[in-house]
Amino acid sequence: MSLSRPQPSDPGVIEVTTEESIARWFEEPADRAPAIETDALTKKFGSVVANDAVTFAVRPGETFGLLGPNGAGKTTLIRMLTTLLPPTSGTARIQGHDIRKERPAVRAVIGTVSQAVTTDENLTARENLSVQGKMYGLSGRTLSSRIEGRLREVGLWDRRNQIAGTLSGGMRRRLEIARGVLHAPQVLFLDEPTTGLDPQSRRGIWEMFGERKASDPGLAIILTTHAMDEADALCDRVAIMDQGRILCEGSPQSLKKALQTGERVALEIEPDLEEADGEALRGMGAVNLRIGSGRSIAFQSRLGEGVGRRAAQLLELRGYRILHLTIEAVTLEDVFFSYTGRALRES
Amino acid sequence: MRRGAELRPARGIRLALLGIAAVCQRAYLTIWRQPLLLVSTMLFPVIYLVVLGNSLNRHLTGLPLAVVDEAGNSLAAECRRGVLALQTGRGLVKATFSADRAGALDDLRGGRVRGVWVLPFGLAARGPAPAFIGDNTDRASYDALESTLAEIWADVTGARRQAAPAARLEAFPYVDYLTYLGPAIVCLAIFMGSMVSGGLQVIEDRMFGYHEGYLVTPISTGTLVTGHILAGAVVASVAGVLVLLLILMITPLPFQAEAVAASILTVFLTSLAIASLWFLLFARARRASVLRGMFGIINVLLFFPSGALYPVESYPRWLRALSDVNPLTYGLRALRDLLLRGARPESCLPEWIFLLTFALVCGVMTQVLFRREV
Fold first, then answer.
1. CA Rg, chain B, in Å?
2. Of A15, A221, B48, B310, which is the most buried if we count CB atoms within 10 A?
3. Do residues B273 and B329 touch, judged by C-beta distance below 8 A?
């Protein structure tokens, strides 16, 4: 796969790369087996390589995000890890169980919330969970108390007898989540858990994951998303995927720090910017300086905080009037851009 | 969580049983929530019964017949009286009398009469005898007219009085066609019922993604297959038994507890065989359009060769081969034995064994073909 992607000019800046992070991971005192470790997991559909030797590891209690545009291979990866799709080569272990050889054991410890609606629209919320719980070997009072607990957690206990098909989109998704965690899995797979939901429902679901984590600190969550804010909000560590490969991996903070550019600044000033003052801005750490009609200026800052603010102060000191100022913090979006040369939304 | 205080999740056989219970629970709740589905499932065979039973094999009446009397003698007059008696009595014919042979044949060609009975000049017991020219495009009317007119001629000439009457005995109580169709309709209800709950549900699950919810759980493929087959079989049995009871009410069949119990067992085993056949056919199907396309074909392949409407003995060899491996044939045979012939339940054992074996073979094949990975 010859992919021409612009590499950061100084690889040393990148704090963590895939191999390094795994090496570091193993150096840490291993009190528990990894929740997930994949070993050159590859899936080919004919000549199309959906996943190309994907290798990563997730600790118990960690929330790991797989970021990437649609078609990056996130869902394929999740389907292999949840035993729905056999890998072409390579393998993975979940709680020490091989996904090729010990599928029933893998299935017993994982929970999934997939993009598909897997709750039956003709059944009530409680009936859906009752059916699901039996499949995990739960029954009787254990099952009914578990169902009550989960429905309360997702705020659907009052609607336990409502037919699933009549629940709103957000509530239906919460029911899916209750279904996914019903049997207290040790590893939870979330495939785009908030896609298609309004912002309020999304935040509600993020909070629910937070609570779930708080009540079950050992739970490892692996989450796919193409929403960078979601990854920022939920993940301890993220891996950016594109065209079936993991491009980089690390905590959202470290990935952002690893970028050569910092915040994005846009200014509108009066009067037009003098050439000398432009140089002064560059001297402060402004890169990619673009001067529009002379009054609107946009640049990205070098690493470090507060360049935008200091630039504005400097311009004011030099007698400019600032009509408009926007400073956008660097996001994972910029990280994605730096690795692929494309914005996430375009792809 | 109170994980420590809770019981450990079941494994092995218990997990399998719980899995089967879960699949069934869902299937029944789904049907329960959509009672219309089951009602329409049973409506189809009942309508089939009423329409088919009343449109096939009923007595023919009012067939237009032209009698051409060229003889004009007393024997011809007796023949005409015979025809008139037929018209006023059984009402089989609506006769017109003339001496115009060409006109009558014209009417026959134009489809205005179904037959022409020519009483030729010099009609006598030794000959010349009457000639029947019939519209053989419609076999049933032709045969009825031909045989009845031959009877009249035999009566008139006294041929019948000379022949010794053959001994005829009906082994079982009189069964009209509607009643004869009864067991076939029960089978049709089973077929329909197993389709909405078994075949359709498997595909729907796959289309709507519910299947994934099953597939990521630790229950085995065997459990899934067994659960789906059982769920489909019980729904089909409910449809079958309800139609069976309805038939017992509207037809003059005697209600014998033992025969009815054995019939219900037959219905269940037939349902099991049909449900497993559906699942085998759709083990790999992805789209409901496949089902819609298949339904008609499977219906024709299962229902008609079963001997539901016409005796198996009339089929050509290839069709009989199909009929020999068709679970409906066996279900139907057992039901007819039990309901129409008043057979002892144990005489249905071979049919029951066949049905059970058929279900098992299909179930095992489904499990092999069924792809867990979606």
1. 29
2. A221
3. no
Interface test with B, best of A134, A136, A153, A183 (most B CBs within 10 A): A134
**What string of DSSP letters covers B6-25?**
SPPPP-HHHHHHHHHHHHHH
Interface of B with A (CB under 8 A): 1, 3, 6-7, 9-11, 14-15, 18-19, 21-23, 25-26, 29-30, 33-34, 208-210, 212-220, 372-374
Query: CB–CB of A119 and B210 under 8 A?
Result: yes
Residues of A with Cβ-Cβ distance to B213 under 8 angstroms: 118-119, 132, 179
d(CA A265, CA A324) in angstroms, rounded, equals 11
Strands A89-94 and A57-58: unpaired
Q: Give the residue-averaged pLDDT of A46-51.
A: 88
User: For residue A217, is the peptide bond before it cis, meaning its omega torsion is within 30 degrees of 0?
Assistant: no
Q: Which of A85, A8, A59, A31 is nearest to B216 (CA)?
A: A85
Q: Which residues of B touch A105 (CB under 8 A)?
A: 218
| Best residue of B38, B217, B223 to probe chain A, by most A CBs closer than 10 Å | B217
DSSP state for residue B130 in the 8-state scheme: P
Q: How confident is the model at residue A31 (pLDDT cuts 50, 70, 90)?
A: low
Contact A118 B210 (CB under 8 A): yes
pLDDT at B261: 92
Residue of A110, A131, A215 lying closest to B1 (CB–CB): A215
| Minimum distance, in Å, between the CA of residue A18 and any CA atom of chain B | 28
Please tell me what DSSP assigns to residue B73. Answer: S
Q: Which residue has the tokens 């409502």?
A: A162
Tell me if B18 and A183 make a contact (CB, 8 A cut-off).
no
Task: Take residue B171 and report the two structure tokens written for it.
Answer: 């082994």
Tell me which of B197, B216, B372 to substitute to probe the interface with A (most A C-beta atoms closer than 10 Å).
B216
Predicted pLDDT at B60 = 81
Contact across the interface for B210 and A120, Cβ inside 8 Å: yes
Across the A:B interface, residue pairs with CB atoms under 8 Å apart total 105
Q: In the beta sheet, which residues pair with residue A89?
A: A42
Torsion angle of the four alpha carbons B189, B192, B196, B202, in this order, in degrees rounded to the nearest 10? 120
pLDDT lower than 50: segments of chain B: 1-6, 374
Q: Do residue B213 and residue A127 have CB atoms under 8 angstroms apart?
A: no
Determine whether the interchain pair A146/B216 forms a contact, defined as Cβ–Cβ distance below 8 Å.
Answer: no
Give me B93's structure tokens: 């014919």
Mean pLDDT lowest among A85-89, A231-235, B198-202, B350-354: B198-202
Q: Which 8-state DSSP code applies to residue B63? A: E
- Show the tokens assigned to B25: 């629970």
B33 neighbors B185 (Cβ within 8 angstroms): no
Written as one string, the DSSP assignment of B253-275 is ----HHHHHHHHHHHHHHHHHHH
**Band of pLDDT at residue A9, cut at 50, 70 and 90:** very low
Q: What's the pLDDT score for residue A304?
A: 64
